[in-house]
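Here is an idea for our session: we take a single protein and study its fold together. Which protein we use is up to you, so please pick one and set it down. Once you have written the record down, we can walk along the chain together:
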Amino acid sequence: MSNIYEQDLPRTAANYTALSPVSFVERSAEVFGARTAVIHGRRRYSWAQVRERSARLASALRSLGVERGHTVSVMLPNTPEMVEAHYAVPALGAVLNTLNTRLDAALLAWQMNHCEATVLITDSEFAPLMDKALALLKSQHGRELRVIDVCDSEFTGVHEHLGTHEYEDLLAAHVPLHRLEGPADEWDAIAVSYTSGTTGDPKGVVTHHRGAYLNAVCNSVTWTMPHFPVYLWTLPMFHCNGWCFPWTIAALGGTHVCLRKVDARAILDAMREHAVDHYCAAPIVHSLLINAPAELREGLGTDPTGSSRKIRGLVAGAAPPAAMIEGMQRIGFDITHVYGLTEVYGPASVAVKTPEWADADLGEQARLNGRQGVRYVLQEGMTVMDPETMTETPADGQTMGEIMFRGNIVMKGYLKNPKATQASLEGGWFHTGDLAVMEPDRYVKIRDRSKDVIISGGENISSIEVEDALYRHPAVTACAVVAKPDPKWGETPLAYVELAYGAQVTAPELIAHCKALLAGYKVPREIRFEPIPKTSTGKIQKFQLRERARSTQAFD
């Protein structure tokens, strides 16, 4: 039975619009049209121009048959075309599939087939790789795509064409859409992003317009970002759609500073030249800046007018070492730690800095900031639970459980994988697989991934805790700890270590360093100085190290 508030109060176009981050682009073009939206080498585009280019791309894709529910795959570095794809594809109700530029041809072909892509936009740098992927897609799956080639002005190699359409020519040939509009239903898919697939096939994480809109807003609220931020793209936009920052920057009328390749000099030069004030990166990228020669960092504390400024960095990862956070503070960067997964649109929790933290010494501030923290303001729930009983663990900093999320910033589910979707959302919560404790202030601190816990003589050892101890040695620039089979203890910690440029330390010295910080049974029994495999976003690939540890003589 209806009540008085349901009578003669209809939902209409005047008082209800489905949430979509596409609306941010239209607003910035309308209000801040003359302001610089994109910087890329010699290219500069205003918000009015970015809106028009995105509307032309949408019009061109429509002419190629792209409709609501169709998938557009893109193989692009952090360039203006990647920004435009994040605005144009969702405006058609189509689904954006950003491909990882580090994958091999077979996996790229598998993903494009799985998400049933109809169009591919690809940068000419990746033409040889994508040529193989497209051939596999046709021979193994019988699928052919329409291909749009991007010849980026900043790419100095050969501009090889795979398709019949060149990006700039295609834009010039199409009248822009009158308006970039979101979907009629905000639950519509906006993107499909694939997990790493370390065991079995990758899972296609399907996200929706409502979640992307809300997380884009959350980014600005969480980081207290002002209008017109100058944002440097050190984070690959293919990774969780750049943590929703393509849409965050649009909402604030900011400037995208694009970067094709990530290295310390390129990052620091761009920060200085364009007065960058915000950037996001994995811990390994922040470590690059800490270890860069001091002369490369000169002038970062001031803007072009000579006024002082602080560069703000967002770091995400299962456990960025406290030593890294402390190191960034020492060189004058303001670091905020966030946590999340592809299934929650990138970051969905934050170690909120409270005023009381300022009274603590630098080491304690780094420890507090190194926690995974509390839920984003528009995420409805985050807690630590016993996954068997689905009851919350006590906030004692000791009892381990699994981090779980619920709310608007959680994926729709896994594409064509109802079993995995049901398991991951069981009990009304998204199960992350990350093991953690809840501290007395209800800030969450990860102890480990469930598969990364080392069980030695019946005792659980957090590989993250051991890694954090190693990172506190100034010679260590990257490390990873995995289980090594042991005939007596079952498993013991094995550490893989990369040293900072020019640094020297021996395995016994590192073991002695760990003994001063950890209980004896947690100390690595072996240190190996070897290259550590990483993803394109800097995330360490422990599954490869586990395989490496098992393949060596385990019981010697």
The first strand starts at residue 36 and ends at 40. The radius of gyration is 24 Å. The chain has three domains: 22-220, 264-449, 453-551.
